[in-house]
Amino acid sequence: MGKGSGTKDDPWQLSTPPGTSHYTMHKDEKDGVAIIVCTVGKTVLHYDARVLNDLQQFLKEQGDWVELGSADEQKAPKEGTVEEWGRSSSNPIGGWYGLKKGLRGRVGMYIPPLMETLGLAEVEHNPKNNRMRAL
Question: What is the pTM for the complete model shown?
Answer without folding.
Answer: 0.95
